[in-house]
Amino acid sequence: MAERTDIYGLLAEFNAPEKVLAAAQRAYAEGYRRMDAYTPFPVEGLAEALGFHRTRLPILVLLGGLFGGALGYALLYYAEVIDYPLIVGGKPFHSWPAFIPIVFETTIFFAALSAVLGMLALNGLPMPYHPVFNVPRFALASRDRFFLLIEARDPKFDREATRRFLEALGADGVWEVEP
Amino acid sequence: MAQIFHRSTNLIARVSILGAVFIIAAVTWALAALNRSPYVTQVGVAREQPVPFSHKHHVKQLGIDCRYCHTSVEESRFAGIPPTETCMTCHSQIHATSPMLEPVRESWRTNRPIPWTRVYDLPDFVYFDHSIHVKQGVACVTCHGPVDEMPLVWKASTLHMEWCLECHRQPELYVRPREYVFRTDWAPREDQRELGRRLVREYGIDRPEKLTDCSVCHR
Amino acid sequence: MSEEKDRMVEIGTPFDPQSAILAPGYTYASITDKISALVLTRRTPRGWFFGFTMAFLLLLLLLFTAAYLLATGVGIWGVTVPVGWGFDIINFVWWIGIGHAGTLISAILLLLRQRWRTSINRFAEAMTLFAVACAGLYPLLHMGRPWLFYWLLPYPNTMGTWPQPRSPLVWDVFAITTYATVSFLFWFIGLIPDLATLRDRARRRLWRILYGFLAMGWRGSARHWARYEMAYLLLAGLATPLVVSVHTVVSFDFAISIIPGWHATIFPPYFVAGAIYSGFAMVMTLAIPLRKFYELEDLITMKHLDNMAKIMLATGLLVGYGYLMEAFMAWYSGNPYERYMILNRLRGPYAPIYWALLVCNVGVLQALWSARVRRSVRALFAIALLVNVGMWLERFVIVVTSLHRDFLPSSWGMYRPTVFDWTMFLGSIGLFLTLLFLFIRLLPVISIFEMRALLPEVAPASGKGTTRPAEAPTLS
Amino acid sequence: MVEKGSEASWGMAALRERLAKQRGRVFWRSLEELAGDPAFVRFLEGEFPTPAPAEVDRRTFLKLMGASLALAGLSSACTRQPTEQIFPYTRAPEEVVPGRPLFYATAMTFGGFAAGLLVESHMGRPTKIEGNPQHPASLGATDVFAQAAILTLYDPDRSQVVLYRGGIHTWAAFWGALAIERERWQATRGAGMRILTETVTSPTLADQVRQVLTLFPEARWHQYEPVSRDHQKAGARLAFGRFVETHYRLQEARVMLSLEADFLAWGPNHLRQAREFILRRRAETEPTEWNRLYVFESTPSLTGAMADHRFPVRASAIESIARALARRLGLEVPEPDLASLGIDPRLVEALARDLDQHRGESLVLVGETQPPLVHALGHALNQALGNVGRTVIYTEPVEAEPIQHMASLRELAEDMEAGRVDALFIVGANPAYTAPADLDFAERMNRVRLRVHLGQYADETAQLCHWHLPESHFLEAWSDGRAPDGTVTIMQPLIAPLHETRSAHEVLAALLGEAERPGYEIVRAYWQQQFEAGQVGGFSDFQTFWRMALHEGVVSGTSLPPVSVSVQWAAIAAELAKRPARAPEGIEIVFRPDPTVWDGRFANNGWLQELPKPLTKLTWDNAAIIAPTLAERLGVKNGEVVELRRGDRQVLAPVWILPGQAVETVTVHLGYGRWRAGRVGSHLGFNAYRLRTSGAPWFEVGVEIRRTHRRHELVSTQDHHSMEGRHLVRTATLGEYRENPRFAKELGQDPPPDLTLYPEHRYDGYSWGMVIDLNACIGCNACVIACQAENNIPVVGKREVKIGREMHWIRIDRYFEGRDLERPDIYHQPVLCMHCDHAPCEVVCPTGATVHSHEGLNQMTYNRCVGTRYCSNNCPYKVRRFNFRLYADWATETLKMQRNPDVTVRSRGVMEKCTYCVQRINAARIEAKKRDRAIRDGEVVTACQQACPTEAIVFGNLNDLESRVAQLKAHVLNYGILTELNTRPRTTYLARLRNPNPEVAALLEEGTP
Fold it and tell me: Residue C135 maps to which CATH number?
């Protein structure tokens, strides 16, 4: 189990989503954990096959929404009731029905913002530089090729054994990824 | 495909996202601070005048009452800037040849007013009345600051609406007995809040809601 | 690249141009190439230059009008008392309504698992953004003192004052800001994988850097896709109530008032339906020339047009119901002002406009019941154009005829648009088209990754059926 | 080089143009100073006869620069206030407390008669004119002309310098020229020297003229005013053998018959008459105490609109009605042919019965527009009805020299024609424009060797004179004048002349050889003489007398006692026999002074030009007013230009259709079609003087109307005249009111007070409100101009009014009602901000620029307004006004001086509206607080309320149950409009009652009499 740190990992290329999915399942069964798959479109079950189960995004969005709503209401309540109460059209200072649209909008605003920012943050984006980009064939990952990466950091990683393993999975090619 | 971006861009990208948030916050804060800064408000900036009239000298050292010069402060919205005549009541005798006072004498001779520089200048859509403030126990120094310490007068308050509202919302923190309104050396001997509450009642100062009605100042 | 073996999709059923949402014969590669080629081609089509120039000239008209407006005041328009709003708010509502189709296609159809949305959602979303930009222009410029627009935002200021949150205009500020932001995020998130595609396929370094910058390092990781799909789904879930709320809030601009013809509880649904209606009409208006000039008939098929026509029919009927209910309630309520308002619409000085709107929005629409009409591209284009006009007229009727004769006969008046009303309107169309032309040239008009995902769906791959590419994200 | 003197017409025009182009701070002490500029001199001498055309481009450029500055205003957060300077006095005047206004009593003469005024002065600038409550012709009220006079004072187009043959000259030069003339007259005893004035009541001026006539016995004094009192004078002479002033005591009258007498709006005493008339017609008046008014008139007037029975008849038919009445009331008059006039004799009988039943409490009033014979018949009728001494009294004339103006002018014209006039001094008058067409006055003036004109404007007459002398405004000069009852007011100036102007007294003094004698000395010396002669008294010394006279604004004890006169029937009978009542045929032309610019003298006053005419609601124009029936017959619509031809004279006039106009008549208003009025007033409308003849100044049968199929844009502020069945003005007859006093409330649907989702705000302390008594509102527009003056309301011009952008905070809605299009009931309803407690405007304002105060005011904070106009859209009363453009004049220095310093001058892009004169409320509150007391009822008087001649507007604290406004709010006739919207307006109305004669009403039911 020699650790080879001069490469980032091995990248196997497939030509069909089913193949990469099967390969991922096999690799997981084999005991590989530090791996990733790259596809030109979302492939159902692929993330799960890699051992990814739940994302915390929904809870983030919920919190964002609640924060937005609370912030909106607090702002309105402070402005209209505490800071500068004004008689407007005979309505009370705390005209909560009139506050609803704004509170609704701030809720959505913050929820949506947390969805996007949360997604980016959890995905570690933006990340303009990534070792996989060193593989020239990787450009096809955004076209019609499907890739499975096994990182060198994986305890089970062995440059040769892993390469053989990947080739055995029916990969059209296996490339070393410069770090 | 080759790498398009260098390794370091990852860090740069993340830092710049955080940085943008901070920069926006900083700019907002800076604008707010600038708006309240002496550069914009001129608070604390002694203004040059055609005659270097010293309030410190006249008020503190000579003990002249505010109303000696600002005659209409108790009857009018405008406190009044003294006519040259007022200056000349003394200065035809005292320092009658001082070169510093030449503009005053010139004004007297030629019957042309002395062009004083305005220190407190409210926007034209704000209507402030000195007389009622003085009557209700708002002292000169409450807004104009320690005039008796000013060789040349500077603005002691921003005159921002938020500044006005501060007192109109809680006059009890600022009012004093009427008889001390023109004193520069008065300090409450009891708790200001308590004294203020009593005076507000006694003087019939309106409730804060009424004092913060738009038309009190804008019309 | 020559050595790669394209994986042909085998065709299960014969291609039916009326029901297929994608023509046969495409592979992941070919569909990628076809769409990205629109952007990455070296030669800009001459037609594009022509269209862009025309649009840009109109945009200049807008800039000139705006400068003159700022110099002189809104007095250059025909607005007056009693008709304090004119083309400004008409155009605002018109544009914002148009914008709704994009969000609707992206979000609501996504939630409803309408797969045909895929080929039209991208440019519909872009259209949303540009329409919102045009719409946003009006509330800003219609103000007497537009340089003080920021007083509508709540921020601690030296005056110690706040916006007045009982006003629908403040709701508008929040709604439009949120809508613009969320629409942008939605659109941008959708673009990220495609930007990565462009990054990987662009030949020039500059473009690669640009697209690479915007793609933020997207590499199609499976984990990323999982979070991405979740985020997309959540955004769709948020955008759906948002889009409904936005036009509801816009309708509140009217419904909250007391003016006969404005003060109606039916306004929110009626406005939302109208917005979708006008939005689909605009998508149709843009899609038909687009698919023709860029030869996208394979991707934007007759099925799309047919579906959109059906949605137009449905929403148009809702709008027609709105008109009917306005008249009915005016009669049924016994409110003399409401009754006069309807009579005035039918017989008053602006009656021709009301009748024209009925013809455009309700009359012509009935042709869509016929499948033959729905199959005729020309007929659809004509109807869509008429509906665009009709919906503009509807806003004219709502704004002007309600205001010009309200309560006191002594203050009744007339509204006559000036030349600057028209230049502002044409100018905003210029802004819209300019942005649209830039978009067509610089970004993929059809979502590439979603089209890829669509491939196995429309033509199931042979053999190993247990795994198939994920559908577009689902609720489950 | 153009020869000097021949460029008379363009010299001044060029100067005006140059001044018009000046922007920013351009003070010049006089035009002489300006003339000293060599460039200007060159310009005048014609080297550069046209101004540089690059001007416009530069301004456009600057405007665009302004736009970018506006954009830069985005960063206004960081703009600093510019440094301002403050200029104290060098020697402080007594009385002036900086920042506090002072009020001075003076008077304005109009048609020669004085109306007492109190003028507000801020630091030496007069800003606002109010009525003097002590003055008998004002009683504290003012009319539109007095209210607007303040604007004339600051009019930048006022004549500012002496002109000789159109070129700029000096007073010194004129004095020199005059001295030479005086030597000549001393030799000729003033032969050929003529003075032409308008009506003179000023004792000082009359004394001066008489001195001139004494000094130069051959000289003559002529008087001419286009709207004179000739018929009244001639009528009195016919009836009594001499001229006596007629005074009505309307508060005593129960039944009134007006024969074209527009006594509520016309004549020197109209303010007092309106007040007295309304005393018996207020909402609080007991129904049994009400008076009744019948009006016969050819064209609707304000008085006609107030009538219980108004009969549109042709002007020439009114004599027949007077005759028929006289016959029925026992005078020996041959029966006129009523049938041919289409008048039911039963109507006249019913009328006669009503008058007869109220002997001593009835009154017949005859309008100036009716011929002297009708006046005489009126006097006879009043005597026959026993009204003399009760509802009508007579006094000696107030005018210094009550001559017949038309005759005087004709004599002058004939003398000029005959070459008998050597030198003509025109003091104040403008005969070149106002003289009747048949006198060819302007043409004949050219035969006079020396023509001198003194006037406030270098007008049409000035153009024809060798010398034009700029006249001081009455607020700039010492003078005096008499009220209709004879009361003298010594008029004191509020400000030193703004320009190089002199008063008539000063010019006449020069004729007497006392050039440069100050007006103050002249007037004071005269009164000192009077005092010493014992003519006036009541004071121990002259100084006290003088001070009190100035302080009070009236000289006590100068009103005239009644004289007893009796009608000499024989003379009338002879005249009656001479003039058989003819049966007129053909269309009649009727002349009227314009309701807002009068005879044309106010043509350059923007406030008055933009003021909607009370009945047509037209602005900026006059029109040929015809009845709907006639319009139908002619096939013309509003705005179509027709040719009016009378003999060989014709004018082109746009048509305006006015219900209530007598069918066979066309009314034209004088005062338009001026060509040298100024930037505001020139070239507006058509000149009706061109159809007027000295023989028939007010009406004549036989005018041809020919269509031209051309159109002229007439601009009216109210395009819709029916209430559409909405209960806006609620009316009932007295009978109906007695049966159902709650009718006004029942016509509305006031929601119950608890019909609200939210708890109510309580308004303790002061809670302001207003009640307008529609019975008392005569629609005179005084409130509109008063508000304009008080609140710095800009003039927007015809183009903007056309698209509905007029800025008046208070407007008077006028509605026509009734089944008969030719004889509608006319209603006025002043509409201003209602200050609704549930204000729809407030809810929709995004910035909170309009919110409620805790005293119930709907506040409008201009500086917070961003101009979305949503509030205006949502205001059901449409009382909000928007600055669509920069309407306020920020450039003209003199106009800035007029502004009320207590009210913000609005810039473009902000909404504005009635504030209930919050500046006055605040001033009163501060005053009260300084005195540790509450504001008293009546202490806060809004500008509209103060001007109102009939006290129709009542304002005050609703929480004070003793206050007048609270009591009126509790009145059963009190109602709010559009209350079904649950707006809870604070401005409410008292329903309008009418007191028709049941007998006449029954006749009218039968059909048109």
Answer: 1.20.1630.10
Neighbours of chain B (3+ CB pairs under 8 A): A, C, D
A91 touches chain D (CB under 8 A): yes
- Which chain C residues are within 8 Å of A57, Cβ to Cβ? 227, 230-231, 234
Q: Range of C408's domain?
A: 28-458
CB of A108 less than 8 A from some CB of C: yes
**C1 falls within a domain:** no
User: Is A125 in Cβ contact with C216 (below 8 Å)?
Assistant: yes
Touching chains, C (3+ CB pairs < 8 A): A, B, D
| CB of D843 less than 8 A from some CB of A | yes
pLDDT attached to residue C19: 64
Task: Reply yes or no on whether the pLDDT at C460 is more than 60.
Answer: no
pLDDT, average across residues C447-462: 68
Judged by CB atoms closer than 8 Å, whether chains meet at D83 and B77 is answered as no
Do B26 and B77 fall within a single domain?
Answer: no
Reduced to 3 states (helix: H, G, I; strand: E, B; else coil), residue A121 is helix
On whether both B92 and B137 belong to a single domain, the answer is no
Q: Indicate whether D970 and D917 sit together in one domain.
A: yes
Please give the tally of structural domains in chain B.
3
Strand D649-657 with D624-626, pairing: parallel
Question: Between C and D, how many residue pairs show a Cβ–Cβ distance under 8 A?
Answer: 192
Q: Domain locations in chain A?
A: 9-53+130-177, 57-122
CATH number at D876 reads: 3.30.70.20
Domain containing B101: what range?
Answer: 82-115
d(Cα D597, Cα D688) in Å, to the nearest integer? 13
Structural domain contains residue C272:
yes
Residues of A in contact with B4 (CB under 8 A): 128, 133
Q: How many domains is chain C partitioned into structurally? A: 1
Inside any domain, residue B49: no
Q: What type of residue sits at position D102?
A: L
Smallest Cβ–Cβ distance between C182 and the set A58, A61, A112 belongs to A112
Q: Contact partners of A by the rule of 3+ C-beta pairs under 8 A?
A: B, C, D
For residues D664 and D544, state if they share a domain: no
Q: Assess if residue D305 is contained within a domain.
A: yes
The pLDDT value given to residue D916: 95
Chain C residues touching residue D70 (CB < 8 angstroms): 70-71, 146-147
User: Do D188 and D214 lie in a common domain?
Assistant: yes
Q: What is the 3-state secondary structure (H, E, C) of B152-219?
A: CCEECCCCCHHHHHHHHHCHHHCCCCHHHCCCCCCCCCCCHHHHHHHHHHHHCCCCHHHHCCHHHHCC
Is B50 domain-assigned?
A: no
Residue B52: C-alpha distances to residues B101, B140, D91, D514, D764 (Å): 9, 21, 21, 50, 50
Residue-wise DSSP of B57-102: IIIIIT---HHHHSGGGGTSSS-----HHHHHHHHTTTTTT-GGGH
Q: Are D356 and D302 within 8 A, CB to CB?
A: no
Tell me whether residue C468 is in a domain: no
Q: Which pLDDT belongs to residue C118?
A: 82
- Rounded average pLDDT over B129-153: 93
Residue C15 token pair: 């291609």
Contact C73 D908 (CB under 8 A): yes
For chain D (1009 residues), the mean pLDDT of every run of 10, in chain order, is: 37 48 40 41 37 40 48 48 86 85 94 94 92 94 95 94 93 94 92 94 95 94 94 95 94 95 93 95 92 95 95 91 92 84 88 94 95 95 94 94 94 94 94 93 93 95 95 95 94 94 95 92 94 86 93 92 93 86 80 94 95 94 94 93 91 94 94 93 94 92 92 91 88 94 90 82 92 95 95 94 93 88 91 94 94 94 94 94 92 90 93 95 94 93 95 95 94 94 94 94 76
* Interacting residues of D521 by C-beta distance below 8 A, sequence separation 6+: none
Residue B154 lies in a domain: yes
Q: Is residue B185 one of the residues assigned to a domain?
A: yes
Which tokens belong to A101?
């649209």
Would you give the distance in Å from CA C366 to the centre of its chain? 22
Residue C113 has pLDDT above 90, yes or no: no
Asked, for residue D986, whether it belongs to a domain, the answer is: yes
**Tally of structural domains, chain D:** 5
CB contact under 8 A, A128 and B1: no
> How much is the pTM?
0.90
Q: Give the domain range for residue D735.
A: 731-994
